[in-house]
């Protein structure tokens, strides 16, 4: 792999072995993604698929089972994830795995190489999405398809509301904890600016129940993500901040069996050039 692995790659690398046990929503998103794909199986010749951010291989396995003749390249930034994906997917030479940072690798990737580029719950981590989408547009054959799932801005809104209330109750400026997620319209704009056409967006709000706020945050951490990115405000330790947040969250968002956690799920599709396939 070219260059050093950044903080995102290191996070997922450390948590590769615990990822699947907590990735309930991500599995659901994988199924939605596969079911949304057009019927390319009737095309002449084999379909060439690039999967970006393959993780432990859940989506890779679905693609290999669904499309028996497809050639699949599964890429991930975390080598420990790829090790697990290799063990999971047994498809001979139809599936190959690549350890790379797609934002670096994509700049030199071959043009018109793939029919479909897919990605599940990954693109929220891109540092330069417009540039990366331009690389994808070049890498796709005419009429090729980019389809991906990601999280929208209302993901974990309960958590952010609880944090905000704690800050405001102490007369402090609220700080963001965790990622900020783009809206469907923002993704559409990025895809259009990158040269894609007939961009489509679907949105679904899904609510999970966790036994407690601590259980929810542990689950997120066990997948390689984090909600503690902001620095504690002056006069408020991180421990006190989280203790107050737990109380606020459980007061406002308790449900039978625990607490509610919202996931704002986006499914995006975009075509490279002219195509009658949909």
From TrEMBL:
One of its GO terms (biological process) is biotin biosynthetic process. It catalyses: malonyl-[ACP] + S-adenosyl-L-methionine = malonyl-[ACP] methyl ester + S-adenosyl-L-homocysteine. Its EC number is 2.1.1.197. GO terms for molecular function: carboxyl-O-methyltransferase activity; malonyl-CoA methyltransferase activity. InterPro entries: BioC, SAM-dependent_MTases_sf. Pathway: Cofactor biosynthesis; biotin biosynthesis. Pfam families: Methyltransf_23. NCBIfam families: BioC. This is Malonyl-[acyl-carrier protein] O-methyltransferase. It comes from Paenibacillus herberti. The lineage of its organism: Bacteria, Bacillati, Bacillota, Bacilli, Bacillales.
């Amino acid at each position: 792999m070219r260059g050093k692995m950044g903080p995102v790659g290191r996070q997922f690398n450390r948590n590769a072995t615990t990822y699947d046990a907590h990735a309930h929503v991500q599995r659901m998103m994988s199924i939605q993604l596969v079911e949304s794909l057009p019927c390319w199986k009737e095309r002449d010749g084999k379909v060439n698929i690039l999967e970006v951010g393959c993780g432990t291989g859940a989506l890779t396995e679905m693609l290999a089972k669904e499309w028996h003749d497809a050639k699949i390249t599964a890429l991930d930034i975390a080598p420990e994830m790829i090790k697990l994906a290799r063990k999971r997917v047994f498809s001979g030479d139809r599936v190959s795995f690549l350890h790379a940072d797609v934002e670096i690798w994509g700049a030199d990737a071959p043009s018109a190489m793939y029919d479909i580029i897919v990605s599940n719950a990954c693109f929220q981590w891109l540092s330069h999405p417009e540039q990366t989408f331009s690389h994808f547009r070049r890498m796709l054959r005419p009429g090729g398809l980019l389809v991906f799932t990601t999280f929208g801005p209302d993901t974990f809104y309960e958590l952010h509301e609880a944090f905000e209330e704690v800050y405001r109750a102490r007369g402090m400026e609220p700080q963001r904890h965790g990622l900020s997620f783009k809206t469907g319209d923002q993704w559409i704009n990025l895809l259009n600016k990158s040269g894609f056409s007939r961009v489509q967006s679907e949105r679904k709000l899904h609510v999970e129940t966790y036994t407690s706020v601590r259980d929810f945050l542990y689950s997120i951490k066990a997948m390689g993500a984090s909600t503690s990115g902001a620095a504690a405000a002056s006069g408020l330790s991180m421990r006190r901040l989280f203790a107050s947040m737990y109380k606020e969250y459980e007061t406002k968002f308790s449900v039978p069996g625990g607490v509610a956690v919202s996931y704002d799920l986006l499914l995006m599709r975009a075509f490279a050039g002219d195509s009658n396939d949909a």
